[in-house]
Automatic annotation (TrEMBL):
GO terms for molecular function: hydrolase activity. PANTHER family: DUF2264 DOMAIN-CONTAINING PROTEIN (PTHR35339:SF3), LINALOOL DEHYDRATASE_ISOMERASE DOMAIN-CONTAINING PROTEIN (PTHR35339). Residues 1-22 form the signal peptide. Residues 379-742 form the DUF2264 domain. The keyword Acetylation does not apply. SUPFAM superfamilies: Six-hairpin glycosidases (SSF48208). This is DUF2264 domain-containing protein. It comes from Phocaeicola plebeius.
C-alpha cells in the first residue's frame, strides 16, 4: 500500500502545471509592459493633481497594477494623490450648493466625474483602514442616496465613474441601500440612453437615434462611452453579492453588451470611435479598446463570458494595444482626447496620450496577466496537490465501495469505546465540506481541471454509496449520536456546492439523504456547538424543499446568540472555553444555517437576513484575529481541545476569503501567503499521513497523545476546511495578486501595520411576530 501511495503522490505532482511555457513567456512580457508604461507615466507626471475623473481613471489602473505587481511605489503614488486632495472629490461642504450637472468647480460634489476618486480611496482604505479615507466618500454618497432623485447618471461615462463606488462602499458597510440605489440610478440611465435593440448605450440623450445620426445616417455609439459601461459593469459584478435580488439583471446586461461589442470589432482589433460607422471617424482608438478588453478579460477570468468565444476578440484587441498603441518609450498612444463623441477629422496618432488612456491600458494589461498566469500560481498548485493528496485515498476507495475495507483506521489512545465505524462518516463528511467549493468550478482542459473532475465524479459515486444500504460503504447513520455531527458536515458540503454535488444526485439517493437526515431528530444534542449540527441539517432540508424542523433551527440560533461573548468569539455552551470551536463550528455553520434559511425563503419569527449580516461581521472580526495569530514563521498558537483538527482552526479566515468578505486591512494576498506558509510548515515533513495514505493522529505529524477521547483519524479531515479559497477561480486576485506580508510579519519586521480595535454589534434584531 505504501508503494501505491508513493506512486499516487508522484502522479499528483506530475499532473500539476509545473513547466514554463508560452503563457509564462507572454505573461512576463506583459508584466514588463505594465512596469514600463506606469513608470514612464509616473516619472513624467506629478501625483499632486486634482481628483477629477481623468486623473482618477488613471488611479483605478494604477491600483490594479499595484495589486498585481506589489510595487509599493505605485501604491504610494495613489496615496500621495489622495492626500493632496484631502480624500475628497469636489470640496464644497455646503450641501445646499451641491450639483450634479456638468461642472468642474467645487460645487459639483454629486457629479459622477468627481466621485470616481472614491474607488481608489476605498481601495487604499481596504489596504490600511483609516476612517478619514472613506469619510467623505460615505458622506457624499449617503447624502445623495437620501435624496429622492434618481437622475444622477445622465451620461454613459458615469457608469464607470460612479457605479463601482456604490459596490465598493457596499462591501465596506454592507448597507444594501447602496445596491438598491445603484439599481434605481441605472434604471434611469437605461430609460434615457440605452438602445434595447443594440444592447449599447448612447453617450447621453442628445445622441439617441434617429434624433442624432452619423453623417452616413447610422446610429452613433461612441466607443469610449460604451467602454466605460462594459468596464463599469465588470467592476460592479466583482463586488455585487450573487444573492442580491437584481444580480441577474447585471449579469444579463454585461453578457448582452459584451456580445454586441464583440460583433463590431474592427479586423485590426480596435473599435472605431463611432462603433457602427467606421467611416464617420476612422482609425484606431485606444481608451475604448482597452476598457473593452478589460471587460472581456474580467468576464472570462470570472466565468461570465465563454473563453472560446471571447478570447479571439481579446487576442486581436491585445495585439493592437501591445503592438500599435504602446510606443517604445512606454507612451500609450492613439488615445482620443477628452470629449464626448466621435469627431470627423480629429487627428489621433501615436503621440496622442492621456492619463485616462494609461489607466485603461493598465486595467486591460493586468487582467490579461491574470488570465495568462491562472494556471501557473505556485501557491495554488501547492494547495491543489495537498487537497488531492488528502482526497484521493478517500474518494478513490469510497467511490468503489471499498473505503471501509481499505482505510487504515487510527483511534485515540483513550478512545471511549464507541463503534469505530463512525470513522468513515467523519472522514467523508469533513473532507467533502472542505473540498466542495473547489469542485464547484467548471471543467476545463487544465491539469488541475482534470484532477477536479476526477474528484467530483468519485465524490458523486461516494455520496450514493454513503446512503445505499446495499453498499459496503453505507455509513453508520443509526444507532448512535455521533452521526448527527458528521451528517452535518455532509449537509454542509451540499450547501457549499448545491448545484454541483446535490442537484446531480439521482432521485433515489436524494430521497435516502432526506430520510437519513430526518431520522437524526432522534438525537438530543448536548448543550454545545452540537445545536448547530442540527440547524445545519435542518436548514439544508429547508433549502432542498424537504420537511424541516423549524424549532431545531431557531432554538439553535437563539442559543448561539446567547453564547456570543463579543469581539468575534463564541462560547461553546453556557461557559466560555479557550479553544478553536469558534473556528471549527460556530462561525461557518451559523452563517450557513442563516444563509440556507434565506435561500429557502423561510418565514418564521427570526429575521434571518439581519441575523446573517450581524454574524458575518463577527466572522470578519474573528478572521482578522486568526490572520494576526499566524506568526512570521507560519505557525499559530496551539491551545484547546481538538487541536489535531490542524488547519481547521483557520476555517473562518478561509471562508471569508472564499466569500470575498475579508475585513479591511486583510487582503487576498495576505491571506493566501499566510495560509500557504502555515500549510507548508504543518505538512512539510510528510508525517501527517499514515502508511495507507490517510491522515494520522497529530498536529504536525504523528502525535497521538494530543488526541481527545472522541478522536479518530477520520476526525482529522476537518483540516480540509482550510481549502475553501480553492473555490475561487485560478485567475482570481486571491491567487494572482503579488505576495504580501501578513500582519505579524509586518509587526515583527518594524513595518507599518493596521492597529486593532474592539468590534461591537451594531445590528439589532427583534422577532418578526
Amino acid at each position: 500500500m505504501k508503494q501505491v501511495f508513493k506512486l499516487l503522490l508522484a502522479c499528483a505532482v506530475g499532473v500539476l502545471p509545473m513547466s514554463v511555457g508560452a503563457k509564462d513567456s507572454e505573461a512576463t512580457e506583459v508584466r514588463k509592459m505594465i512596469d514600463k508604461v506606469n513608470q514612464h507615466w509616473q516619472a513624467e507626471n506629478s501625483p499632486e493633481v486634482r481628483s477629477f475623473w481623468d486623473n482618477a481613471v488613471y488611479h483605478t489602473g494604477n491600483m490594479e497594477a499595484y495589486f498585481l505587481t506589489g510595487n509599493e511605489t505605485y501604491r504610494a503614488y495613489s496615496e500621495t494623490w489622495a492626500n493632496y486632495n484631502q480624500w475628497k472629490g469636489a470640496k464644497s461642504d455646503n450641501r445646499a450648493e451641491w450639483k450634479y450637472s456638468y461642472g468642474e468647480s467645487d460645487q459639483y460634489v454629486l457629479f459622477g466625474d468627481y466621485q470616481i476618486c472614491f474607488q481608489t480611496y476605498t481601495d487604499l482604505y481596504n489596504l490600511a483602514p483609516d476612517d478619514k479615507k472613506i469619510k467623505r466618500a460615505r458622506e457624499v454618497m449617503e447624502y445623495q442616496m437620501s435624496t429622492s432623485q434618481n437622475d444622477y447618471w445622465w451620461w454613459s461615462d458615469a457608469l464607470y465613474m460612479a457605479m463601482p463606488v456604490m459596490t465598493k462602499l457596499y462591501k465596506v458597510t454592507h448597507n444594501t441601500l447602496y445596491l438598491d440605489k445603484l439599481y434605481a440610478y441605472l434604471q434611469y440611465s437605461d430609460s434615457i440612453m440605452f438602445d434595447k435593440e443594440e444592447n449599447l448605450y448612447y453617450r447621453d440623450a442628445k445622441y439617441i437615434y434617429p434624433k442624432h445620426k452619423t453623417v452616413n445616417g447610422k446610429k452613433d455609439f461612441w466607443a469610449r462611452g460604451d467602454a466605460w459601461v462594459l468596464a463599469g459593469l465588470a467592476k460592479v459584478l466583482k463586488d455585487l453579492p450573487e444573492e442580491y435580488k437584481h444580480h441577474q439583471f447585471f449579469v444579463d446586461k454585461f453578457q448582452k453588451m459584451a456580445k454586441a461589442v464583440a460583433a463590431i470589432q474592427q479586423p485590426e482589433g480596435y473599435w472605431t470611435r463611432s462603433m457602427m460607422d467606421p467611416e464617420f471617424a476612422p482609425g484606431p482608438e485606444t481608451s475604448g479598446t482597452a476598457l473593452f478588453t478589460y471587460g472581456f478579460l474580467w468576464g472570462i477570468n470570472n466565468g461570465y463570458l465563454e473563453k472560446d468565444i471571447y478570447m479571439p476578440v481579446v487576442q486581436k484587441a491585445w495585439n493592437y494595444l501591445s503592438k500599435k498603441a504602446l510606443q517604445k518609450d512606454g507612451t500609450v498612444g492613439y488615445v482620443q482626447p477628452i470629449g464626448e463623441k466621435a469627431i470627423p477629422g480629429q487627428v489621433i496618432n501615436a503621440k496622442s496620450t492621456a492619463n485616462f488612456g494609461v489607466g485603461a491600458f493598465l486595467l486591460a494589461a493586468c487582467e490579461y496577466v491574470r488570465y495568462l498566469e491562472a494556471s501557473q500560481s505556485a501557491d495554488r498548485a501547492y494547495w491543489c496537490k495537498l487537497a488531492y493528496q488528502m482526497a484521493y485515498p478517500v474518494l478513490s476507495n469510497m467511490s468503489k465501495g471499498e473505503l471501509q475495507k481499505n482505510m487504515l483506521v487510527e483511534v485515540s489512545p483513550n478512545w471511549d469505546g464507541r463503534d469505530k465505524r463512525v470513522t468513515y462518516m467523519e472522514t467523508f463528511g469533513r473532507l467533502m465540506a472542505g473540498i466542495a467549493p473547489w469542485l464547484t468550478l467548471p471543467d476545463d482542459d487544465t491539469e488541475e481541471g482534470k484532477m477536479r473532475k476526477e474528484l467530483r465524479e468519485m465524490a458523486l459515486k461516494s455520496y450514493a454509496n454513503a446512503v445505499d444500504p446495499q453498499s459496503p460503504d453505507y455509513l453508520l447513520w443509526r444507532g448512535h449520536g455521533q452521526a448527527l455531527v458528521d451528517a452535518a458536515y455532509i449537509a454542509e458540503s451540499f450547501l457549499r456546492a448545491y448545484a454541483q454535488l446535490w442537484l446531480p444526485l439521482d432521485e433515489t439517493t436524494k430521497k435516502r439523504y432526506v430520510e437519513e437526515f430526518q431520522q437524526l431528530r432522534r438525537v438530543d444534542p448536548p448543550y454545545t456547538n452540537w445545536l448547530l449540527f442540527s440547524s445545519t441539517i435542518e436548514s439544508f432540508l429547508a433549502k432542498a424543499g424537504a420537511s424541516f424542523d423549524e424549532y431545531r433551527v431557531n432554538s439553535a440560533i437563539r442559543k448561539v446568540e446567547e453564547w456570543y461573548t463579543g469581539d468575534g468569539w463564541y462560547a461553546d455552551g453556557p461557559s466560555f472555553a479557550f479553544d478553536y470551536y469558534s473556528s471549527y463550528v460556530f462561525h461557518p455553520m451559523y452563517l450557513e444555517t442563516l444563509q440556507a434559511m434565506k435561500d429557502a425563503k423561510a418565514y418564521t419569527r427570526i429575521a434571518y437576513g439581519k441575523y446573517y449580516d450581524r454574524a458575518l461581521k463577527r466572522a470578519q472580526k474573528f478572521s482578522l484575529i486568526l490572520e494576526r495569530f499566524i506568526s512570521p514563521e507560519g505557525t499559530f498558537p496551539v491551545f484547546g481541545r481538538s487541536i489535531p483538527y490542524r488547519m481547521a482552526t483557520m476555517q473562518p479566515l478561509a471562508l471569508m476569503a472564499w466569500y470575498q468578505e475579508l475585513p479591511a486591512g486583510v487582503t487576498n494576498a495576505q491571506v493566501r501567503c499566510a495560509l500557504t506558509a502555515v500549510m507548508k510548515r504543518m505538512f512539510a515533513s510528510g508525517h501527517n499521513f499514515n502508511e495507507g495514505g490517510f491522515l494520522t493522529i497529530g498536529f504536525t505529524g504523528r502525535q497521538p497523545n494530543v488526541a481527545d477521547w472522541y478522536t479518530n483519524n477520520g476526525s482529522l479531515y476537518m483540516t480540509s476546511l482550510s481549502f475553501l479559497p480553492l473555490g475561487l477561480p485560478a485567475s482570481h486576485p486571491f491567487w494572482t495578486d503579488a505576495p504580501q506580508e501578513w500582519t505579524s510579519v509586518r509587526a515583527w519586521g518594524e513595518k507599518p501595520f493596521p492597529k486593532d480595535h474592539h468590534w461591537r454589534d451594531e445590528i439589532r434584531t427583534w422577532d418578526l411576530f
